[in-house]
Amino acid sequence: MSRSRRASVIALVVTGVLVIAIGLLGSLETLVWAPLAMTDDAYDLADIEGIVGAEVFAAARIVMIVWALAGIAAVVGMAWVVRQGASLPVVLLIGAALVWLGPFSLVWAGFGLGNTISDEVPPYVGSWSPVGFALHWFGVAAFVAVLGFGVLALVRAVRSR
To answer: In whole angstroms, how far apart are CA 94 and each of 16, 18, 27, 53, 115?
Structure first.
């Protein structure tokens, strides 16, 4: 296995691990830690679910499953790109984009649940959990990596002509 191919496979594995970790932490953040932080720990999770309704949490769980399946499909697609022999900068660009999409999609995955909690559960303080805060800043760092790897891929493409 060539050095570039080995680096691409390592990038694929790291991306897969990060996507899984972000998905697991993001699910816990969306379904557990964020609702507790929104109420400043005035209620436990069962109380919050009782106020907003079990169907709201069920819908949020379904959205999380859909996002998880989309993440798995994206990593499988990245594996196909690696197998086709894409250059390392392109693989890094795709990996960084997939990692960035995790925290970005968490906002939308928990949007309905967050709105329902803010509308129906007093006192709504609107704070973030520490994990949610860290995930969102990790998403910003991944977006910067997307930009950097995008420039790197463009420079390499122009130089190869």
So the answer is: 12, 13, 23, 39, 32
